[in-house]
Amino acid sequence: MTDEGPNAVAWHALETPTIATKLGTGLIGLTPEDVVARLEQYGPNQLAEDPPPSNLTFLIRQFRSPLIYILLVAVVITLALSEFIDAAVIAAVLCLNAIIGLSQERKAESAVRSLKRLLSPRAHVVRSGRDIEIDRRDLVVGDLVLLESGVRVPADIRLISTSALQVDESMLTGESGSVVKRVDPLAHDIIVADRRNMAYMGTGIASGRGRGYVVATGNRTELGAIAQQVREEDEMDTPLQQRLSRFAVLIGVGVGIASMIAFAIGIARGESTSQMFTIVVAMAVSAVPEGLPVASTITLAVGVRRMALRNAIIRRLPAVETLGSTTVIGSDKTGTLTENRMTVQRIWVAGRYIDLAPDQSSIQDDRHLADGIESTGDFEPLTHLLHAGVLPNEAHVYSSDEGPIVQGDPTDAALLVAASRFRSDPETVRAQYRVLEDIPFEPERQYAAVVCQDDRQTIAFVKGAPERVLSMCSEMLTTDGIAPINSDAVHRAARDLASDGLRVLGMASRALPDDTRQAREPWQPARMVFLGLVGMIDPPRVGVPEAIAKCQDSGIRVVMITGDHADTARVIATQLGIASSDAPVLTGVDIESLDDDELHERVLRVSIFARVAPEQKHRIVRALQAQGEVVAVTGDGVNDAPALKAADIGIAMGRSGTDVAREVADMILTDDNFVSVYAAVEEGRVTFDNLRKVAFFLLSTGVAEIIVIIAALSLGWPVPFLAAQILWLNLVTNGLQDIALAFEPAEPDVAERKPRARREGLLSRLLWERLLVTGIVMAAGTLLLFRWELDRSGSLATAQTVALTTMVVFQMFHVGNSRSERRSLFRMSPWSNPILIVATIAALAVHTAALYLPPTQYVLRVEPIGLTQWIRIGAVASTILIAIELHKRVRRH
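Below the sequence we write its predicted structure tokens.
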């Protein structure tokens, strides 16, 4: 046996004798000694598995944010100053945020472990001339494996013999139909999806039998290569994480500059260094929105709940907002945009086209009849054609509440469903005939046939490639009966069906003499009657064209990335509105010939990518990201896993998807429908809007507090707030209301907006401008009442209580301003967010109680205030409504 690694040899290009020689094996299989030696050389036939993340790892993830780092520094500083209450409050905030995030992200994220679930636990092999069953893990390179219908391929195998062998490779290549296998050598440089003489680990045997030599096991298989690529793919920060990081850095820089200014002013006015250090710490605490980590986590959690109601399960919290930033959706075709089942769409029989309704939700349902034909009894030629599809057929289809349940080859199953929809039950038809001879489909023959007998006659039915079936026919079925064959008419009809992207089958039959069953030689079809043509395709899902149109109206570009053939991809893309019928298609072979710069340029102009291998789909995603796009990728197969993990947000199918696709994805669609992607995009935008509202509301208080402290120092006044009072304001009174903002409903124009640029910050330029207006108005009102109370009562504690309460009431009014960036508060229903009403009342009630209860009076250093003071505070604080309404009006115009 050669010492070359199995993947270093192009096994598909070699003749069978050469393969056996290079592998050191043969038709009697390996000896026990060979097996032991090869297990030592290559190891067991299983994929490498990473240990699951520990609870500590998940916990540490919750603290990876510059904003959290600032709060950690604040804890250290307050402890150093012996401000234990302040330190304890900030620490409690950090712990609460970590607990919420940990509970949302606790699911294990190992794609490689879930890959193992795709594999058969047992394998049939020939060893020392005996057919035995072994554990899949004990397979070695050179083993002779036997394959049969219904099993999963246990390793990468070079086929040496086949009998009507068809393999479902959709999970690996994305091709919608089963692939007919053969054993002939192929070109050296042919892509994986076209290697018809190979069977790959994890794929399923749809029908037939075969045998072949194992050429790769475990991590050396194509599946193993994908697993390794997934394992090596670095986790990228989502756009939200990037925005929060930039936001935290901005806050940190602002706090630093403001602290230095305040410190310099205090020292210049003769304050002691220790006193100024305490004041600066208090100001820094005021500037940092301590409630933002918790509020943002809760806002994302609310988005998770909303998306779950719209069939989207979010596995990582930041992914909620990423959807709202998405600029490109790269969608898999099979199973996402389409139904992932072959469906008869058009029939040509007796010179007539019959179009079947696309809805396949039921096998037998009067709502799904075609061209007014309710049953085969309404059009006799159709009866013969459908019988030709039902009888030489090894599939079975059963009706269920969720649609047809298919067993067997998808093409055969589609023919059974078509017959059922014309009230011609396949099992009833089969029961009417006794099979005398069955000729299964073989690639060399290009047809399948059956000779059967009912009470009246012996009859043969044939289905297969149109040209092959036509070549065995001398007559054809017409509306007037049997007529000489018109080859030109058949060819024209076949071209018409193929031009619509349909896979075309020809049907024929012939009545035979009753003594046919006595013949010793196998029956050969000849002098047949051509019945017609059947065109089928994996059809688009209902509602998907409308969802794609909405995405495009929202400024989101949809591209198709599939392993299927270029012609099929173009037809489906045209039907869905992704591209025009003459749009360019970039294939995997084309991509292979392009360098990165050329691919970066092409991905901006091409919307259809076909016959794409997993590593090429990964390159497409990276090329789009290199152009500044925020990319969402949908997929359901193992072949999609690297791209799903590389994308800004990976979206997997919950029903039909493979475990590996679900495990690497950030979001899972429970209904496997692209329509739900658009719904999730809407919810993602709502979530970001609410995050922006929360951040603006919280930061408003911080800006106002900084202005108050710097202004007081500049004027030589006492500091209006203590550190504990600032924490009370930021975490308790504001904390109730900022969380309530997370429940704000969608604004009317959320779906029509263009996607946000990747570099756009958490706050828009308009909100930064409004933040300054808000800070000045709130600071001016607070300073006015602080000075008033200080001069009137002479009590610093009372003046600080008034200043604190003024800020609390300011925020009661200001939370209404924060509900929309542009819309007037007075044009919004107060009842659309009842949680906000309750939270605002609760915030005022909690603060009022704190002013009059001894324990909180001690902790916060506050005193009770009278009715007159409350009236003055309410009058001054309401001015924030006037200021912001004027600002909104000016900026709208």
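The CA atoms of residues 510 and 597 lie 60 Å apart.
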